[in-house]
DNA sequence: TCCGTCATATATAGAGTTGATATATATCGA
DNA sequence: TCGATATATATCAACTCTATATATGACGGA
């Protein structure tokens, strides 16, 4: 799945701008399973316009820079829907947090506790964010996907809460005696 | 987290080759939270050698091509452990499957059912794979991480099983009448 | 025996992507 | 007034992936 496909997917649901595509893919309703940056979105939209899968027009705005609004063409829509019949690539999960945890034996206890708590806090934020999105969405498939996401995040959070003492206990004892000797 | 860091992380646990780093990051014990391809691993190892974070030697093998075995230096080890004190980047999750599911209203029921079953099968494979890995690993932090991964995968699989009929029901009815009219 | 496939192993080119930065306008709060 | 934040487009260097090339040997089937 490349950025062109992501753009087409979002454009299938209505006209929008490169700025908005980026926002939705990093903070909005698409953020939990895809991402794209400006450096890939703008070139992707240009290429899609060359290929006649989208058209664009410039819209002036008061108090804001004028924006370039993209719209999917019938050809583009057809191309996108057809691509949904292709074999799906595997899900990708990457976590610096889990890499970090594999080395807790070499790290001070306070640092490990801090990072685990930060991770739990991020889970909380993400769950709250999805809850808000669910209120906005009415399309049944979108709600199903958001519920699935929320379920997975709650499950991960619960595991962290239930087992955090165990992983923290594996970390190195702090050098408390050294400081006490000062 | 870049590929250089992944290489150092794996090399921290013993000497190995570029080929093996790729294998472990795509199929082995690191596969569930990171990934790297040949095109990034070999250049990364070269740069790490330039920077004196690793050394290499060529080892001839019978019945196999000779291999280049890399070893982390004390400087490299120190650099890696220090980098574990840095702020952690957010976890990344990308799923073509979830993008696909947002468009089930436009897709035939048989295709949706097929893809959901494929996803459940992949979950089963992944869970079995992690179980095997857990038998091999004795380091407590590694087991904790694998258990966490297994917990998350089981939870996702259960949600898919429990709610698959609901999402399949949202898909388009097949064009059975059209075929019957032939 | 020959051929294709698979596994081991290194390497690279081209395409795609990220992360950082530049530019411009406007609002909001300190 | 100054910095931060938000909207909005755009680009570039560095990085990464996908696909391919090269080489060796094992294994199985035709």
From TrEMBL, chains A, B:
One Pfam entry name: PadR
Specify the domain of life of the species encoding this protein: Bacteria
Q: Which InterPro entries has this protein been placed in?
A: Tscrpt_reg_PadR_N (IPR005149), WH-like_DNA-bd_sf (IPR036388), WH_DNA-bd_sf (IPR036390)
Residue ranges of every copy of the Transcription regulator PadR N-terminal domain listed in the record: 8-79
- Write the protein's name: Transcription regulator PadR N-terminal domain-containing protein
Please report the organism this UniProt entry assigns to the protein. Maritalea myrionectae
Q: What is the lineage of its organism?
A: Bacteria, Pseudomonadati, Pseudomonadota, Alphaproteobacteria, Hyphomicrobiales
